[in-house]
Amino acid sequence: MAVVIISSADEQTRRELAKNLARKLGCESMSREQILDAATDTGIAVGKLEVAVLKRLAPRERLARDKARYLAFVTESVCERASKGDLVYHGRNCHLLLQGISHVIRVCVVPEPERRINNVMARLRLDRDKAIEYISNLDSDLDNWSHFIHGVGLTDPQHFDLVFNLQNISIESAGAALCSMAQLSDFQTTPASIRAMKNLWLAAKVRHKLGTHELTAGADLRVSAQDGRVTISYMPGQSKIAAAIPDVVGVIDGAQEIVCTMATTNILWIAESFDPSSSLFTEVADLAGRWGAAVELLRWFTPQEGEIEGGETWLAVGSSPGISPSAHPVPKAMDPTGGIEDDTEESEDVPDNGLAATAERLIAAGRFGGAGMVAGQMETIVTALKSDHRYSLVVIGEMFLSRTALLRTRLTRDITSFLKEKVNIPVIIGDELQERFLPGKRHLLRIAASLLGTAIIFGLVFTHQEQVLDFLAGPAWINWRILAVLGIAIVVPLAAYLYGGATGLILKLMKFE
Amino acid sequence: MHGPLGQLFIDISFSAALQIVMIGFIGGVLSGFIGSGGAFFMTPGMMNLGVQGVVAVASNITHKFGKAMVGSHAHGKMGNVDKRLALFMLLTAAGGIRLAVWINNLLFKSGGDGHGAVKGAGADLYISLVFVCILSVVALSMLRDVLSKNGETAGPSTKIAQLLGRIYLPPVIHFKVADVKVSLWVILLMGLATGYLAGTIGVGGFIGVPAMIYVFGVPTAVAAGTELYLAMFMGAFGMLNYAWEGYVDLRMTFLLYIGSLVGIHLGTYGVKVVNEKMIRLATAVIILLCVLSRGIAIPAYLRQLNFLAIDAGWDAYFNGASKAMLYVSGIAGCGMILYNVFRAYRQRRRLQSTFSRPGPPAK
Description:
The complex is a heterodimer.
Chain A: E1 3-7, H1 11-25, E2 29-31, H2 32-41, H3 46-54, H4 60-82, E3 87-91, E4 104-110, H5 113-124, H6 128-150, E5 162-165, H7 171-181, H8 191-212, E6 222-226, E7 229-234, H9 239-242, H10 245-249, E8 257-262, E9 265-271, H11 279-291, E10 293-301, H12 345-348, H13 355-365, E11 368-375, H14 378-387, E12 391-396, H15 405-422, E13 427-429, H16 433-437, H17 441-463, H18 465-473, H19 481-509
Parallel strand pairs in A: 1-3, 1-4, 2-3, 4-5, 7-8, 9-10, 9-12, 10-11, 12-13
Antiparallel strand pairs in A: 6-7
Helix pairs in contact in A: 1-7, 2-4, 3-4, 4-8, 5-6, 6-14, 17-19
Chain B: H1 3-8, H2 14-34, H3 39-48, H4 53-77, H5 83-110, H6 121-147, H7 157-166, E1 172-175, E2 180-183, H8 184-200, H9 205-216, H10 220-245, H11 250-273, H12 276-304, H13 314-350, E3 354-358
Antiparallel strand pairs in B: 1-2
Helix pairs in contact in B: 2-3, 2-11, 2-13, 3-4, 3-13, 4-10, 4-11, 5-6, 5-8, 5-10, 6-12, 7-9, 8-9, 9-10, 11-13, 12-13
């Protein structure tokens, strides 16, 4: 079963290539425009959302709800069609839709500039200069839209499997090349990739349903699914609707269990192996309790051949922890045989390394936010983190277990640095969690020292009020004006730092975070 | 307090100190809850205690410096600060503060010139008028937003925001943390407005945060963190300017800290547990009541400047009514927030925040 997704800014070009390829594969093509019509029929105002995003008519958080609903509908529609057989889908930036599904071929088509200009001139009856200006504005809008919807730019090459420049190849040849490519074993379905798509589809169905029901339409919900377990997190301010969520979801094919978690934010815990009896689990759960956060588990592992020189580049594809952490797609680059080998049983047998047990413990602790497995590329996680602004912390747990202790430490540090560089979310190694975020004995010492410092400063000021004010603004103050300003500039931040630090730590000890 | 110092600074009795701590605490709770400086409550609160307007603004902006320093440090750890954006805004915000200090200083010194006008009344009137005008627009915008049927409108400021957001006058700068591209000229204009308001009434955040969200398209959390980072520099600059003129009352600043640095944590916690619509409704109502409170005090300043011919004895009534109104709004707002905070805190310990149910059987 082949799923080919063609992205191009020029509608006519992509439509022609999609039709050509669909004819060769003997399947139907589906366009973004068809889905948008269907979305509009179900009450999703896509045009309004586009205008709101491009003209910044509302804060991102408000748009995020509409975005989630829109994305859920599109994902659901594409997954539904793809589940029935071969599919050629084309759109403007649709290659970012089914991330983590290894049998999907993502194609970028660069249209011929002259042809594109002529198309616009003919369609919109514009002169050449206006058409060029229109195309330039359109590309800029598309890039902004892609940034908002998927967190990455439109032309970022790492999200494509193939790029066609139609200045150098005809549509007929491009179609033939794609038809051949679809036969490669790298792009054949595997139980794992089908499971990944089912997870994505299930999450999208649930999110779409919640987005259309009057009770839950206005709620900030986050939905993920894995192997029949649907995890929905909601904000504490919306706790009244929580009990209604399972009823709203109702009967959805594939949904075996619905887990609802109240969370103001999310902590992403990435590890190769999880242990619910470890101290790291206790610390993560404690921190999640303090922050009112849900913990998302992501079992991330590198293929055996995964490490390229320096350990900085990782192979294959992964799932998005954003809308739906999915199952474990088979890493493409694990396959050095040209595609002639069994790729099903192996992927089915990927051990969960404590993932399920940890998820159960988190559910019991009331802090479960979803779980997923991914082999390979860190970039996919980066994309998901960038497009989702609800993560407050990324914790890197046990990784690279097959390596020596020294190499493991270095690689873990490398991956932490890589993520820190790419996303604006704190990323820490599990060992640092206690020291950085959880209160301990040293905090008591800091509180005592800070309070003592504060008492000294405040005591001096209030027992010498006349002298202090005389120094700051008295009749002769003009003579030492600079000193007075300097005094304030030193004493005020020092007092704020000491007292603010002490109050913050005391409230932290009281779990008021 | 005697002599020239007595004209500028008040005597702080134990009762006055408690009131300032309480003002700081309420301001801190409101500040943490609303996401702005809390000066809309603290500045008039101090003025109602008899503090000169210019001293109240100076002490508050000094207090804001330290508070923003602590707050932006916490936001920075969460990756919510776009330092580059803040520093670009600071370029003109400093000019805005300087302009505000210059006007305040001019008006303060021009009062009490022997023609019957009370020292500082001009500055007090000016600060009160700016306060009433700006915050009325802010509160009414919020109220309209909350009361709109579908909650999709973003208030009257949207049209201006759209207009400014469309300006792509080069150079256009990309800010990585906020992930937005904005024209330098729009940033400088917003910086100037933010600085002027911060310097005049201490509420630059009411312009800075919405500008970043609606005009620049910055995510709310990053806008709040960046505004705090900017506020730290603006507070420092304002503090230096007012300290240079000799208006900072260090005692006031410290007393405000005692309450505000506790209150801000509780207010921030409140944001997490109170419904979003309720947050905006409460904010709008609290600000409107603060505006009303300041508006009540205006006739007294007009009389002191000889613009209104009423008995001087009425000053006490105006001031008293203003003070009562401010305290009612502050205490009611703060009470509502704290009620929700402690209720949620207790519930959090009892409540199982995850529940799991088997999905309904498939047909």
